[in-house]
Amino acid sequence: MWSKPLLAAMLGMAISSGCQGPAVGGPCTYDEMDFTATPTGYTETGVLFLNPHGVEIDIQKNRFETVPEAGEEVTLQVMKITSGSCTPEIYTVVDDSAG
């Protein structure tokens, strides 16, 4: 007759071996590009900009040392995915010093 601890161990091994499939997502690669933008608007929590393709993006205000005012230029970086299944586009503030 099977002991309860042995059955529990066998069940645990069976379950964990079923989780050994391929990793979802995997390593991703991105193309990076810096661009200069000026605010096009504001929300309660973010600053709106146009990306290089003319699509509006929202960057959270807490990502800036100083929230840019209308007309101030900000350097942003876009990382656009080229392979894998991670976040399609990532925007980062590179330089938010008023220029």
UniProtKB/TrEMBL annotation:
Residues of the signal peptide: 1-21
Domain of life: Bacteria
Entry keyword Signal: yes
PROSITE patterns: PROKAR_LIPOPROTEIN
Keywords, comma-separated and alphabetical: Signal
Protein name as annotated: Uncharacterized protein
Source organism per UniProt: Henriciella pelagia
